[in-house]
Design goal:
The chain is mainly alpha-helical. It has two domains: 15-78, Arc Repressor Mutant, subunit A; 82-131. The chain has helices spanning 15-27, 32-40, 49-62, 82-98, 102-112, 117-131, and strands at residues 30-31, 65-70, 73-78. Strand 2 (65-70) and strand 3 form a beta hairpin. Helix 2 crosses helix 3 (49-62). The longest helix is centred in the C-terminal third of the chain and has 17 residues, at 82-98. The protein is elongated.
């Protein structure tokens, strides 16, 4: 059976880039001002407009976002879906930190902090689906 081609690997986003991506995944395509307002709503020290604009320009060059030229300025959107980016980050961490071991990754994650009853049930449900 032929293997499915892998998605191109993008550079790993920085923490600041991930915070911008989370805004774009939640809001959808957004202006720099929209991203700035959303990010500054959760920060003790607000970022400047030019800082967010610089991040978005760098992210455009890296391939993390796309830009649409609108009537009122540029609109930015995530270049890849949230789940694809998260999968790439988890696989990268699994390879770099746990030598490619899914078992070690999962055991470390589950032992790192308390897991709620609801989260344990979701994990059990996922494992049951995988067993079928």
């Amino acid at each position: 059976m032929p293997q499915k081609p892998r998605d191109p690997i993008l550079p790993r986003p920085t923490d600041s880039e991930l915070s911008i991506l989370r805004v774009l995944w939640a809001r959808g395509p957004s202006s720099v001002r929209d991203v700035l307002d959303a990010i500054n709503g959760n920060r003790p020290e607000p970022l400047a407009y030019t800082t967010v604009l610089s991040f978005l320009q760098i992210m455009l060059e890296k391939g993390h976002v796309t830009r649409i030229d609108g009537e009122r300025g540029h609109i930015y959107a995530p270049a890849t879906p949230e789940d694809r980016t998260k999968n790439q980050l988890v696989l990268d961490m699994m390879d770099r930190v746990f030598g490619g071991s899914m078992r070690e990754l999962v055991l470390q994650a589950l032992g790192a902090r308390k897991v709620s009853r609801a989260e344990r049930q979701e994990i059990r449900d996922l494992l049951d689906r995988l067993d079928r």
